[in-house]
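Priority: low. Protein: Recombinase family protein. Input follows.
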Amino acid sequence: MTTIFYARVSTADQTLDHQVAQARKAGFTIDEVIADQGQSGVSTNLSERPEGRRLFDKLRRGDTLVVRWVDRLGRNYQDVTDTIRHFMRQGVTIRTVINSMTFDGATTDPTQQAVRDALIAFMAATAQAQAEATKEAQRAGIEHAKTEKPEAYRGRKPSYDRDQLNLVREMTGTGAGTSEVARAAGLSRQTVLRIRGDIVEAEAALARWGM
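Result:
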């Protein structure tokens, strides 16, 4: 039985070292790390990425696939749900570092299966929605930059960075409370509430400052 940690790393997300360190700090014992650098989670399915497709060859019944969150598998609803269900049918367990979610095909109870599948669908839909919100915020920031002088529109420099914003957004999608998110992200409750209150503007602020 092998535990494989998969990471998708882009310039807008956490580094590979950070993701692996976070997983080990959470108590995961990792046998192998597989990572794709600079791969889009929206336009490129997991099976189409250079390293992602290796998972389909390497994972066997009884193995565990660990990811920071389901958005590392992808930000396309159909691809993420299809991928998780494929691995579960193969007897692979999928676990997330954030909120310690576990998905497997062990249960045969239809009610439990329905609850599990609904949660998978919700998390995959959240990942796609977050990607679309990020893209819209970045587009808005660029348009603003074209029409305003930098000193006129930048406003106050954000008290959070891209990694912290991503963590707030991801944990919010799993229903975590404000205090829990603040502790995990190393931010004040007020900052977390402000980000949650307008995630698009939070993204736009980072874009305006080139963060």
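The first strand starts at residue 3 and ends at 9. The first helix runs from residue 16 to 25.
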